[in-house]
Design brief:
With 353 residues, this protein is an alpha/beta fold. It has helices at 14-18, 23-40, 57-60, 101-110, 126-129, 142-162, 181-189, 195-210, 243-249, 294-304, 332-350, and strands at residues 44-45, 63-75, 82-95, 114-120, 167-171, 219-224, 254-258, 278-284, 313-317. The chain has a single domain (14-350), classed as TIM Barrel, CATH 3.20.20.210. Helices cover 35% and strands 18% of the residues. The strands form 2 sheets. A 7-stranded parallel beta sheet has the order 1-4-5-6-7-8-9. The chain is globular and about 55 Å long. The chain starts with 13 loop residues before the first helix and ends with a helix.
Length: 353
């Protein structure tokens, strides 16, 4: 187990902001953050998602069939009220390259330890890429579009497992729609789908993507959050409405769960986590500069251990520090202090990172 974990994305240095897409600069800074992770004491390594503009742009860069000029408005909380998501499906999706091969090829040469690769779930895209009045000319329903994405993600997960990746993480903030009453209404009224049926389908989709990739010694994880864009969020609510179904039916080893604020609810839903699964507690906020108190973190880990044995727990930030290239509203050094706190706390609680 990795007791000290992090979700994957890291704040981009200014040089990368000023020259997006510069492969040489990306390589330089990826080497820097790999060394920094090692120096802090992590045993699992990511490239900070420095080759992406956001946590799911590996998908956009790998397919054809999207109108990248079209957009759908998106409401956020805690900051700028709206943003726009580009990439509307207007033709049948076709894949032109693998999602994460370039990232993995570099990491296999340079990572100082076990590699984590993150992928967005296919469930992320129907609500943000399917625009009524336009997309149904190609896909009659959200569901038809969703299932057309599955083979691409399924083959990528299998390839990563075959190529020696020890930690494959599916990023799935879309599950937060099922814990927030306003988003459940959106699923029912705007998408025209029963929320419980949509949840069942979402679980089937992710299980299908993972089904044939099982390998000894490989961690399959899913990360659940409530939105993360420049320190904003879009959903609120505890895991209670989905906990029993999700924790028992989703075929992953590990759940990375957001628990950094009151938006996340209580630890009580963790009682449904099976004994053979791990929970990574996202107790350290990637959204705010203030450094958490270690004693408070340990107290919260102890509280969570009332529902999940402490040997089945680990610690991380609640989300990435830069789910979008712009990043959250804290400095790089504040980010690294938080990651050092994760490692130090893990060592104090479990004796190892």
């Amino acid at each position: 187990m990795y007791r000290a974990d992090h979700v994957g994305s890291l704040l981009r240095p200014k040089e990368l902001h000023d020259a997006p897409g510069n492969i040489e600069l990306q390589a330089k800074h990826i080497l820097d953050v790999l060394k920094r992770q090692k120096d802090l004491g992590f045993r699992i390594f990511t490239d900070g998602e420095f080759r992406r503009r956001g946590f799911m742009t590996d998908f956009y860069d790998s397919v054809e069939g999207l109108d990248m000029d079209g957009s759908i408005a998106r409401a956020w909380l805690g900051g700028t009220p709206t943003s726009r998501l580009t990439g509307i499906v207007v033709e049948r999706i076709s894949q032109k390259k693998r999602l994460a091969k370039d990232e993995l090829d570099f990491l296999k040469q340079h990572s100082p330890g076990d590699i984590k690769i993150t992928l967005p779930t296919p469930n992320q895209f129907p609500a943000i890429a399917y625009k009524k009045g336009l997309s149904e000319r190609t896909y009659a329903t959200y569901s038809e579009f969703l299932w057309d994405l599955v083979p691409m993600f399924k083959s990528e997960v299998e390839a990563l497992a075959n190529e020696g990746v020890r930690y494959i993480q599916i990023d799935a903030p879309r599950y937060s729609y099922y814990v927030d009453p306003k988003w459940r209404r959106y699923i029912r009224d705007d998408m025209g789908v029963d929320p419980e049926s949509a949840l069942d389908e979402a679980i089937r989709v992710d299980n299908t993507c993972l089904k044939d990739a099982r390998r000894e010694g490989v961690t399959f994880a899913i990360h659940l959050c409530r939105g993360n864009n420049q320190s904003q969020w879009y959903a609120e609510g505890g895991y209670d409405p989905i906990a029993e179904k999700l924790f028992n039916e989703l075929n992953v080893n590990t759940f990375l769960l957001e628990y950094d604020s009151e938006r996340s609810g209580t630890f009580e839903p963790l009682r449904f986590v099976p004994k053979n699964k791990t929970v990574v507690l996202g107790l350290v906020s990637s959204k705010i500069p203030r450094l958490e108190n270690q004693d408070d973190l340990i107290r919260r880990i102890e509280q969570a251990s009332r529902y999940v044995p402490i040997e089945n727990l680990a610690l991380s930030p609640q989300c990435g520090f830069a789910s979008s290239m712009e990043g959250n509203l804290l400095s790089e050094e504040e980010q690294w202090r938080k990651l050092q706190l994760v490692v130090d706390t893990a060592r104090r609680v479990w004796g190892t990172a």
